[in-house]
Amino acid sequence: MRLLCTILLLTALGRYVVAAVPAPTSPPFARWTTTELVLSNGLVQRTIKLPASDGRFLTTQYKPVDGEFNYFIKTNPDFQFELNGKPYTGSGDWKLVAVQKITDAKQGDGAAVTLQSKDGTVELTVNFLLYPNLPVIRKSLTVKNLDNEPVRLESVDVEKFIVTPYKATTFSWICHDYGRRRSIGPYDGNMQDALLTVHNSDWQQGIVIGNEAAGVVKHTSVFWNEPAILSGLTHKEARFPFRKYIGKGESFTTPQVFTIVYNNHKDPDEILNTAVPDFVRKHLGTRLSELDQKPTFVYNTWVPFRQNIDEKLVMELAKAAADAGMKEFVIDDGWADNYGDWVIDRKKFPNGLKPVFDYIKSLGMKPGMWVSVGSASPDSKVYKAHPEWFVLDEQQQPTNLHEDAANMRTACFGTGWRGYIKDVLLKLALDYGLEYLKLDFTVVTSTYRFGNKVTGCYATNHKGHNDHHESLYTNYEEVWALFDELHAAKPNLFIDCTFETMGGLQLIDYAMLKHAEGNWLSNFNGPDAKVDLRVRNMAWWRSPAIPATALVIGNPEMQDTGWDMHIKSLAGALPIMLGDPRKLSAADLKKYRAYADWLQLMENKHQIMSYRQDLAGFGEPMEGMWDGFQRINTDAKSGGMVGVFRHGAVEKTRQVIINYLEPKRTYQIKTTTGKVVATLTGEALQTTGFPVTLTAPYSGELFEVTDTLLTTNTK
What we know:
By secondary structure, the protein is α+β, with helices and mostly antiparallel strands. 21% of the residues lie in helices and 31% in strands.
């Protein structure tokens, strides 16, 4: 008999913490014989035929433990890849070498199956991990070269599922672009498909595919060249092909792919709001989850000042930002005398940056700084001393991957550059006590260039890659290694890896999230309501597949008319403001601080920065509609925050439903000023909700949702 015991403790900070959580089953989640491997955690089961008489490695069943699942045939080839152009799949001829238990640091438990190919060229280990309470199976491949010469690994599909005929391919929705865009028919994915869902509304079944490969070398396709679902790395004929050379006796482990199969769900977004964020938050290993304190209100100098900053301006901005309640203060571009050397511009900062950062800290804010992580000016000392560290184009000439301009060179991370820039960044972080690094500009591919020629590195003498195609993958991996080394020296450092560094417009993915905390996703400028819509729209597009606090959405300005709507809209992501706080009146600064303190209170009480879900009945933010979000603590169920917005809609009143609360507990709904607007049980909030009236056609409100027990204990 399994004991179900969940204990909620109220801490001195007013936080609920979960002291014990029940699990359907306990590890081990894998059992095997010489002919069969069964993976099950009580929620999901996958059965694999091990090589025996016919040498095949096949997934024969993959389904939720309870109920039917109609998607897959019983002879799935499981994986495929090419070595020196020769294809290998689970349907090939393999010899079983060993099966052993494996675990990871995030409660993962499963098995690793080691196989040897009949031709004696490759030893393959297929790694499976399952997690408590979630219908997730995570998988990777480890390819070991048994040949006497290096081999070329390409076209890697970590997962390959063949679907059942007709109904799967004809009636499935392909929910791509972070699970938000729906289409039918064959789909060949791209860099934006960190996650997609295949859903059949007739069956009320589907599969979520999360691809943990980096940037432009991730690939997931659905029914593209065959009735199959493939997920792994880009194929050799792709625009940005993956390639890895594996030396004699050496091994390469692919990025992981996680999958979730489900049934009895009418809408695929149900999984996006439950199992997916739970897995990402608890088990994926995101850096954001490791932070003791998550940022709640950030200021950045980029707009409107650009590079026109100096000591006097920054100190004035810091004072005003602190008065407004900002918690982090980031100095953007313009503080250095060139790219590459990262030496302080003494004309702008005659006393250096230390007194500036000391002043920022004295105001109660955490300091941050912008640096281009892979760029140098042609006249910089580092470029002149080490031209061999920089990217070469097809003509073997130094180039600027970021944009078509001769004033900058792009460094190759497959050289000594990584060690150099690591020392630069560590010195900055440690000398100035930085808590936030915004690391920017192109390192693999550019957001602003087109085609696939001005990408990666074509150098033939760089240690980190053998050719251009291999550089696309290895440069990402070297950037991740750099981030890990920075975190080892400063564990609570918030690294903002911008979409420009990621290599695609507004691109963010799971690979980045395991090594950096956030991603500067946009540069939305303008004072009117369209900016607020774009902020909420971007946050909706990327969440809940991606943690909302990782979404750094610029550039709303503090002094804009209607600035309070900027704050309310940004509260669904990472609240970050730019602009000139010196232009605000004393009354406005007081209002800003009230919002800032309220956001911090919501984090202290409910840890809102770890959660975000869709608001039931409210869809994609768009003109003429209502939209909203909720950031409810689904572990402690103590409550959280709700944002509701009217964007030109005819209706002045909407009923608001809140999901994922404890049905029997009683909750209060409060405005940001503390006024109670409703007191309802979790069940009533989920079934009938409460009305919100917004008289202005372009307006919005934030509300706290809090357990009355928590309210009583914190009075």
